[in-house]
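Notes to self after the call with IL:
- keep both proteins in one doc
- input above output, always
- annotate only the second one for now

Protein 1:
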Amino acid sequence: MKKYISVFEVCSRVMFYKLLAIVVLMTVSQWAAGILSLKRTLAETASQSVSYEQYTLLGTGELEKWISLIFIVAAAIFVLLAMMNGSRSMQLNTLKRLRISEGAVTFLWGVYYVLGLLILYLVQGLNITLLLRYYEANQPYLVPNEQILTVELYTGNFFHFFMPLADTYIYTDAAILMVSLGLYTAYSSWLLRRGKKPAMVFAVFSTAYVVIKTSTNIGFGTLMLLVLIGVGAVLNVMYKLWRGDEDEA
C-alpha cells in the first residue's frame, strides 16, 4: 500500500502547486472580469438616465462569456501540464525504485488528475454562485425575487453545468467527463514519453467543452450519449493499461 501512496506523492510534488496556482489565477481573473463587466454594464444603464423595475440581473451574459473562457483556458493549462508530467529523470528513477508497473503508475496518476479536475469544477461552481450574489447585491433597480438566481442558473449553459440544481443527471455527466479526461491525460503522458501523439485527449477535451457550453440546450438524451462516449473512453484506457498496449488510444 505504501508504494501506491508514494506514487501519488511523486505526482503531487510536481502538480500540487501548479494546480493551486491555476485555481488562484482562475478565481482572481474571473472576479476581475466579473467586476469590470458589471461596472461597464451599470455605467451604460446609468447613461440612459432611465429608472425602471428590474426583474433579471444585468450583465450576466457578458459575465458568463468571460468566466467560461477563463475556465476553459485554466482547464486546458492543467491538462497540458499534466500531460508533460513524468518526463523528469528524477521522477522516473523514483518510480523504478518503487517496483510498480508503469500501467499502474499511469492509472494512479490519472486518478490524481481526476481529483484535480474535480477541484477545478467545485471552485468554478463556488465562483459562479458568489459572483451571481455579487451581481444581485449591486443591481440598482432590482425588484427582490427569491427565484432570480435560480433563473440565471437555468438559463445560462455554463452556469447550469456547474450548478445543475434539480437536473442532477448533469453531475453524472460531469463525473464521467472528468474521469475520462483525467485518465486520458495520464495515458497521453505515457504516450508522449514514447514519442507517440496523444490525439484522443484533445477529442475528449473537445467533448467536455461541447457539454459545458450546451448543457441546457441539447437535452437529456444527447447528454447521455456523450456520457456513453465518455464511458467508452475510460474503458478503452483501462483495457490498454491492462494489456500494456502502447498504441495510441
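Protein 2 (the one to annotate):
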Amino acid sequence: MAKKGQKFQKYTEEFKQEIFTHYSSGIPTSVLSKRFKVPEQTISTPEYQ
C-alpha cells in the first residue's frame, strides 16, 4: 500500500519493453532489478509485463 506523499515512478513503453525482452529470455528479476534500478516486484507484476 502506498504511503502518504509517496512518489510513483513512470516508465516509458520502450524501457518496459527492453526489460520484458530480457525477462522473457530467462534473466532473473534480481539481476534485472540491479541492472535497470527497478524494484524486483515491479518487474514481476503481470501489469508491468
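Annotation: The chain has a mean pLDDT of 86. The radius of gyration is 11 Å.
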